[in-house]
Amino acid sequence: MLMSTILSVGLKGALMLSIIGAGAVPVPETPDTMILPEIPKNYKHSPFNPDIPVPVVPAPPDSTFPFNGTIVARDGSIKKLAPHELSLSNPEIRARSTVHRPGVGYFAGFNMGTYTASGGCMTQNDWVNALRKMKSFENPHFKFTVVKVFTTSQCGCLNNALNAARQVGGIKIWAGIWATPYATYQSDKNEVGNQIRGPNGNLIAGVSVGSEELFRGTLNAATLSGYIWDVKGMIQNSYGKTNIPVGTSDGIAPLLNGANQAVIDASDVIMSTDYPYYGGVRIDAALKAFQRDWWTLGAKMNGKPLIVGETGWPSAGQTQGQAIATISKAKQYWKSCACWMRSTRHPFFWFEIFDEYWKSGGVAETRLGISWGWSAAQKYDLRC
């Protein structure tokens, strides 16, 4: 996961408003005394558990397109396909399909793994209990309506999450396709297709293809953008679900790199991961660092929605630079960052809802939750 990249030059308020749109609150220039030296990157551990096998999920049956076989390519050219070519197996369909750009409104949600405290697979009943716990966190300032997951096929994650969401009510699932290795990408993609065509397909809020692939160096921009177009073609064209946005989640630095522009171009939405704690930023400067990253990346989005895919602050762990991990600091970060996103109507996923004790990589890795566990109380108040 990405540690906050502290930028030494802020954007002027007028420029911010012209890029992001009316109604947003511009961030003032940060005084020089508040600008911290850049801290070397610290890599967070993956939220995906590689010790659990990923099942091989067969692709759902192909379906014909809900139009007459004329597709408009991304470059504007028009191509006529014969009926037998209107198939998901046809690469022309995946790569040259009609472009849909579904929008995204404001929401507040959480990232959630599919593992128990020991790292095993959550059952559907576990999911029901977890989502009910999340609903209990709601207050007059926040309604938590979306959960983002990192895999779909491993541990039956998407099926269990969707069934639990229907049972609990008022919750949708943002499906994450784990993109490496390729066999896992195929299984996760196929499972998304199966669930979209199933009775709970209307509870899928969006799809994220890959998690910090560019930041971790596991995929290059050309391959990742191809995966995104592939999933868009399956969901929006083959299955006609033009209201489901498809994108990716990655760190600020690789998304700002012009060499990766193809990923932004392919995506309907971009999710940024940003952790001032892992950048070594002291808590009283964390919001300004986060805002600086948000506005700078927003300038590259060309009007596409920008979602906070991950941010948070651990309640315990090693000090990183000037960043101290305590419950009081985690509470302060929520009240500054989450409440700023609420007031400016920026959609976000907090990382995360429960501590994950199975992870390696240090104590902080396991203490990013709002609560210690499904049966434990929340660590701090979530009101503004």
TrEMBL record:
It is found in: Cell membrane; Secreted, Cell wall. GO terms for cellular component: cell surface; extracellular region; fungal-type cell wall; plasma membrane. Residues 1-24 form the signal peptide. It catalyses: Hydrolysis of (1->3)-beta-D-glucosidic linkages in (1->3)-beta-D-glucans. Keywords: Carbohydrate metabolism, Cell membrane, Cell wall, Cell wall biogenesis/degradation, Glycoprotein, Hydrolase, Membrane, Polysaccharide degradation, Secreted, Signal. One of its GO terms (biological process) is cell wall organization. It comes from the Eukaryota. GO terms for molecular function: glucan endo-1,3-beta-D-glucosidase activity. Its main location: membrane. Its EC number is 3.2.1.39. The keyword Coiled coil does not apply. It is a single-pass type II membrane protein. PANTHER family: GLUCAN 1,3-BETA-GLUCOSIDASE, GLUCAN ENDO-1,3-BETA-GLUCOSIDASE BTGC. Belongs to the glycosyl hydrolase 17 family. Glucanases play a role in cell expansion during growth, in cell-cell fusion during mating, and in spore release during sporulation. This enzyme may be involved in beta-glucan degradation. Active on laminarin and lichenan. This is glucan endo-1,3-beta-D-glucosidase.
